[in-house]
Structure prediction request, 102 residues.
Amino acid sequence: MRAGGDLDWSKRWGAALRRVLKPNGTFWLAIGDDFAAELKPIFQRELGFTCRSWVVWYYTFGVNCTKKFSRSHTHLFHFVSDPKAFTFNDAEIREPSARQLA
Prediction:
């Protein structure tokens, strides 16, 4: 599928998400490099979400590529419906940093 078709499809499911997400709702979008830079402004400007965080998750596993370098990261966007009233349950997922464990 061409990039335009992928972006159009993402706009459609993003608009559906906008309709059903609670006013204080939040969601994460995990996306590779191919569309990260294009989807962030679509979700912000066209669909009206606010990006609270852009996390780059580095990993040491993945596809073994033979004709190019293997990817070692993915992008995670934390979007909210309302930047002043949203749910963020960080205590349930927070892990101590290496500095805290030392």
